[in-house]
Automatic annotation (TrEMBL), chain A:
Organism in which the protein naturally occurs: Ginsengibacter hankyongi
Origin superkingdom: Bacteria
Family annotation (InterPro entries): 4Fe4S_Fe-S-bd, 4Fe4S_Fe_S_CS, NADH_quinone_OxRdtase_chainI
The keyword Repeat belongs to this UniProt entry's keyword annotation: yes
A GO MF label: oxidoreductase activity, acting on NAD(P)H
Protein name from the UniProt record: 4Fe-4S dicluster domain-containing protein
From TrEMBL, chain B:
Name the UniProt record assigns to this protein: NADH-quinone oxidoreductase subunit D
Membrane topology: Peripheral membrane protein
Record-stated family: Belongs to the complex I 49 kDa subunit family.
Gene name of the encoded protein: nuoD
Organism annotation: Ginsengibacter hankyongi
Record EC number: 7.1.1.-
Superkingdom per UniProt: Bacteria
HAMAP family the UniProt entry points to: NDH1_NuoD
């Protein structure tokens, strides 16, 4: 029964097209469900999850103090030399010499956001920030110094 | 070398597809010898995104090298990390806590679904249907959001580290995954309505790019490519790692060996992954997410090998250690390379227009091939 088979095939083919078209028609009439975001217009309401790895930063408290001891664990953990810890010796209040950081240089252009430095840091001095708009006109701007100028180590952090 | 002349001595036409051809994902360069519209030979030229990952890994420590492997098969980043972490753990001889094992499997399966979703959209787009791409991305986006919440990144997570995981699950994880499962079940029949059942799609896929089981084995194909030809090669079943041996799921096999069979295998695998996730999501055991490991990892002298099933097939990681903190040699056996090598055999004698369908069903990720 060649002819019956042929007609059946044609019928099924046309039916398959209409099944697809029905789905298309459904979305044509139900366009309320919006799945896209109006970036960058929604910048103010954009909430990235707190674990999002955007950039390494060093939080400071209100007295301009950070938690970094200058132990260089982050520098050793980093796979591509993104962090350079430059240390100096401070004279503490008791007159003793104490190791402290002069600058913690961070090359954003090299960073792969792998989180290894954050895990390696024994005193939780660095964290990941949720910023992600990193494009700048000059490459030099991507080399950052994470500790604020004139900042000190927090009391009680060893 | 690419021939400068457009024709061979027999009068066959030589054309270059790629590196920037819209039909190729990544930058794959194919030199095709054509007799009229019939393909006589397909020659892939590789190396456009070769980053020398294997060599790079040799200068990185066992904790550091994992992040680079996310950049191989970027659609199965979790599974790549998993393979490397497994290999290092084998060398260290540590057993990771059960909680970490379950989470790893959950993440692997979510990655597999995300990868297959993207493949499905891209494949339909290659064949001229643009809308499925958006449908696929709608669901994939949900998975990406889950990943972003727990791992902090959408593609290159670096979440599975030697000894366990980088961080514990986000408190929202279970809820979000359950929401995703509901959404997936609601939407998956759209895939069948829009693409699978479509007569134009079926005619372009059925009987195209035939690969016999023997050829699949001799070319070293793995994953859905080989399973479409009826070769049972699921590492999760054959060499179970983590908790896969305690799970109930089927290895999806089709025997036709054509593009449509490979397509059906991937669609079936998504459903199996959902089944695995459903079994685990309510049974994540409590406990640590990391085993106790030293800060500086040193593997004993010797050779270590681990294999996992990525979304594209079997990924093998082979580490030679001299006893130091960095590997002496690392070799990755990537599934994409062997699958691509079967393309020439598949394509010979078929028409140029069918090549896109074949490449689509091979699910090529070029950074995985080039490394
Ligand atoms: S996130 Fe990774 S690459 Fe970036 S500074 Fe930290 S360790 Fe280095
Ligand atoms: S940021 Fe942390 S790991 Fe790096 S030097 Fe400071 S204390 Fe050490």
């Amino acid at each position: 029964m060649f002819i019956v088979k042929y007609i059946k095939e044609v019928f099924n083919a046309v039916k398959s097209l209409f099944v697809g078209l029905r789905r298309t028609g459904y979305y044509f009439t139900h366009h309320k469900e919006i799945i896209t975001q109006q970036y960058p217009d929604n910048r103010d309401t954009l909430n990235l999850p707190e674990r999002f790895k955007g950039e390494v930063v060093m939080p400071h408290n209100e007295n301009n103090e950070h938690r970094c001891t200058g132990c260089t664990a982050c520098e050793l953990a980093c796979p591509n030399g993104t962090i350079k810890v430059i240390t100096k010796f401070d004279i503490g209040t008791d007159g003793k010499k104490k190791k402290a950081i002069d600058k913690l240089v961070y090359h954003l252009e090299l960073c792969t956001m792998c989180n290894l430095c954050i895990i390696a840091c024994p005193s939780d001095a660095i964290v990941m920030a949720q910023t992600f708009e990193h494009s700048v006109f000059d490459r030099a701007e991507l080399t950052k110094i994470l500790n604020n100028p004139g900042s000190k180590i927090m009391e009680g952090v060893e | 070398m690419v021939e400068e002349i457009g024709t061979t001595e027999e009068g066959d036409l030589i054309i270059n597809v790629g590196p920037q051809h819209p039909a190729t994902h990544g930058v794959l360069h194919l030199v095709i010898t054509l007799n009229g519209e019939t393909i006589k030979k397909v020659e892939p030229h590789l190396g456009y995104i070769h980053r020398s990952i294997e060599k790079m890994c040799e200068s990185l420590t066992y904790r550091q090298f994992i992040y680079v492997t996310s950049r191989m098969d970027y659609l199965s980043a979790h599974i790549n990390n998993h393979a490397c972490a497994l290999c290092v753990e084998k060398g260290l001889d540590v057993e990771i806590p059960r909680r970490a094992q379950v989470i790893r499997v959950l993440m692997d399966e979510l990655t597999r679904i995300a990868s297959h979703e993207l493949w499905w959209g891209a494949m339909a787009m290659d064949l001229g249907a643009f809308t499925p791409f958006f449908h696929a991305f709608r669901e994939r986006e949900t998975i990406n959001d889950i990943m972003e919440e727990t791992c902090g990144a959408r593609l290159t997570m670096n979440y599975m580290v030697p000894g366990g995981l980088m961080a514990d699950l986000h408190p929202n994880f279970q809820k979000r995954v359950k929401e995703f499962i509901t959404l997936y079940k609601l939407k998956i029949n759209e895939y069948a309505e829009l693409v699978t059942g479509n007569i134009i799609f079926q005619n372009r896929m059925k009987g195209v790019g035939y690969l016999s089981a023997e050829d699949a084995i001799s070319y070293g194909c793995s994953g859905p490519t080989a399973r479409g030809s009826g070769v049972s090669c699921d590492i999760r079943k054959l060499y179970p790692y983590e908790v896969y041996d305690k799970l109930e799921f089927d290895e999806v096999l089709e025997t036709e060996g054509d593009s449509f069979a490979r397509y059906m295998v991937r669609i079936g695998e998504m459903n199996q992954s959902i089944k695995i996730i459903e079994q685990l999501i309510d049974n994540i055991p409590d406990g640590d997410f990391q085993a106790k490991t030293k800060v500086v990892l040193k593997l004993p002298k010797g050779e270590f090998y681990s294999r996992v099933e990525t979304a594209r097939g079997e990924l093998g990681v082979y580490i030679v250690s001299e006893g130091g903190t960095t590997p002496y040699r690392i070799k990755f056996r990537s599934p994409g390379f062997s699958n691509l090598s079967a393309l020439d055999h598949m394509a010979r004698g078929s028409k140029l227009g069918d090549l896109v369908a074949m490449m689509g069903t091979l699910d090529l990720v070029i950074p995985d091939i080039d490394r």
